[in-house]
Amino acid sequence: MTKQLRSVVYMFLISLFFASLVSAVKYLNEKTIASNQALKLQRIILKVLEIPVEKNTPDDQISRLFMERIKNIQVEDRILYVGYEEDAHTILGYAFPVGGPGFWGPIQGMVGVDPEVTKVLGIAFTKHSETPGLGGRITENWFSSQFKDLPLHPIDGDKKIFYLKPAGTTGAPNELDAITGATNTSSAVEAFLNDDLDYFLKELWTAVEERE
Amino acid sequence: MTPINPLTLFFAAIFTNNILLTNFLGLCPFLSISKERRSAMGMGAAVVFVMASTTVLNNWIYYKILLPFGLEHFRYIVFIVVIAAFVQLVEMTVERFFPALYFVLGIFLPLITVNCAIFGASLFMIIRGYNLVQSLAYGAGSGIGWWLAIMAVSAIREKLQKSAKLPKGLEGPAITLIITGLLSLAFLAFSGMIRVQ
Amino acid sequence: MPNLSSKKEIFLTGLWKDNPVLRQVLGICSTLAVTNLMVNTLVMDAGLIFTVCMSSLTVSLLRNYTPMRIRMMVQTLIIASYVIIVDSIIKAHLPDISEALGPYVALIITNCIIMGRCEAFARNNPPLASFLDGLGMSLGYSLILITIAFIREPLGFGTLLGIRVMPEGFVQWTIMIMAPGAFFTLGILVWISKYILPNAKNGVERK
Questions:
Q1: Number of structural domains found in chain A
Q2: What pLDDT sits at residue B195?
């Protein structure tokens, strides 16, 4: 009996010790993790609005640039980022988060559009759990850079804003290369991105115009 | 937003994204147990059962207990303890009520706790944000995928042992790894994905 | 207390003579997956070395107090705690790599080497020897995985640590990036090692 009691007390003490150790480490790292995430978001937004940022630009410079050039506004229940030119009052474009279910799990991204909302400035996929080397290639530059200058118009009937087609069969400016071998990921991206762009064009854009 | 269809997930987990052949999980028991078909069968069955149950259990615990209380950073410990406790429980139940089944599965059950595939399935499910039904589909699919892979490799190994003359150093783990590589290559065909440039 | 030469012996046994990957084919699950990029491999290895050494040390320090019956539970708890610490540090200081590694850092917990060393060595040996044993084993393990990454990354991506090493016009072997490439590379390494490693026995398969 005393032996069993000893085991329980021992286990309890060990657990207590390690639980506090883990919590302490987590507490110490929490701030760094949060600021890293904020910084990553800032970099992405600057990137999709085509404000030039080098990969090795120091963090504080990024934050300063972001503070000077980007304002965020709340439209309905969404956050919209407004980018300004260097003079700080000419609008350079808008950025907004997009996302939807991918093949394996949710995909998140950010889209930047020009001030008249006629074309895409840039796009970046930030979070996904697609297969590395296949669907995971949505984060690669060749894929996202295709979206630059994509003409925008609200979806009318079943005519989508853009299509992802097998590489080599694309012609029109709204036809982009799909990822070879990742049909499911490609069609998922096509579906949610068309929806989100359409939502922005139809709903958010009117809301923005009304505010101004 | 339409959520991912559980059925798609189930089949994808078996074929296109087999947890063993594409994520390398559960390789240690795989290498030692794939020597003969009989044990491969038993281990595989045990993995299917435990994996399907623990992903669902861990999903419930994570979203209903850990997240509401802000304890999500303890999830690794909790998951591994849940798996260990579940395996222990199953072992006792099976031994008591289904002695015939225990005879087949018994020795494999304790080994499962250290099978990284089981723990891996729980981690993937949290990262990919699956709900309860999706977790069940994913857990069961991954388990069956693992079973399929170990059955295939053990059958090949048995044949190989009887008929093939291998170079000395290639016997054992080396050839098993190469067979697994070939199998993994074959499974890639399920998605019609591979394109060697 | 073992003397100096036996300490060296303990360290070298793990590093080379009884290499956990080549001789025992243990613990490859969690790390093999990330060997298509050298950076990820190095970070994973660092995490593993830390976890193995610290777990061995802790288990050894507690060896005279831990009740036999619950020792596995205690070991699991110790290992999991160290892995959470590693995970948290990587997340804070190397956010990009942390994202790329996904769940694989956490999978270090189920890496058989750690539990294996705790059970086979640290449980019965003094702290310093256990620490060295862990260090030798995990370094030996890392050595092999780095070798695999050294083969996979240049052939698969044409780069090493992100720097281009292959000549222009080199056709990338997509297969090396994907799972089969890892299995083939490891299989061939194990094969070759059978001829190189001292007094290799055939078909060594220990649990």
A1: 1
A2: 31
Provide the 3-class DSSP secondary structure of residue B22: coil
Cβ neighbours of residue B32 closer than 8 Å, sequence gap 6 or more: C205, C207
Of all residues in chain A, the one with the smallest CA distance to B128 is A105
Contact A18 C81 (CB under 8 A): yes
Residue A23 at interface with chain B, using a CB cutoff of 8 Å: yes
* A58 within a domain of the structure (yes/no): no
Residue of chain A with shortest Cα separation from C103? A129
Contact A10 C67 (CB under 8 A): yes
Q: To the nearest whole angstrom, how far is the Cα of C2 from the nearest Cα of chain B? A: 32
**For testing contact with chain A, the best of B2, B4, B15, B24 (most A CBs within 10 A):** B4
Q: pLDDT in tens for each of the 197 residues of chain B?
A: 456 677 878 887 888 778 888 878 888 778 877 877 887 888 888 889 889 999 999 999 999 988 888 787 888 888 888 888 888 888 888 888 878 777 766 667 777 777 788 888 998 888 888 889 989 999 999 999 999 999 999 999 888 888 877 777 777 788 888 889 999 888 877 764 433 22
**Contact A22/C85, CB-based, under 8 Å?**
yes
* C129-163 tens-digit pLDDT: 899 989 988 898 898 889 988 988 888 878 887 77
Q: Closest approach of chain B CAs to the CA of A29, in angstroms? A: 12
Q: Do B73 and A129 touch (CB under 8 A)?
A: no
Structural domain range at position A198: 71-211
ipTM higher than the 0.85 cut: no
Beta carbons of A74 and A207 less than 8 angstroms apart: no
Alpha helices in A49-124 (DSSP H): 59-69
Give the residue, A184 or A196, on which the prediction is more confident. Answer: A196
Q: Which residues of B touch A (CB under 8 A)?
A: 1-4, 12, 17, 22, 73-74, 124, 127-130, 191-195
Rounded Cα distance between C207 and B51, Å, is: 22
The Cα–Cα gap between C203 and C24 comes to 10
Answer yes or no: is A111 within a domain.
yes
Residue A171: which residues within 8 A CB-CB, separation 6 or more?
none
- Does C202 touch chain B if contact means CB atoms closer than 8 Å? yes
CA–CA distance, C169 with B183 (Å, rounded to integer): 30
Residue B62, chain C, CB below 8 Å: the answer is no
Integer Cα distance of C117 and C121 in angstroms: 5
Would you call B120 and C195 a contact, using CB atoms and an 8 Å cutoff?
Answer: no
Band of pLDDT at residue C102, cut at 50, 70 and 90: confident
Is A52 domain-assigned? Answer: no
Q: Where are the domains of chain B?
A: 6-190
Give the span between the Cα atoms of B111 and B96, in whole angstroms: 19
The answer to the question of residue A158 being in a domain is yes
Q: B197 and chain C: CB distance < 8 Å anywhere?
A: yes
Cβ–Cβ contact C81 with A under 8 A: yes
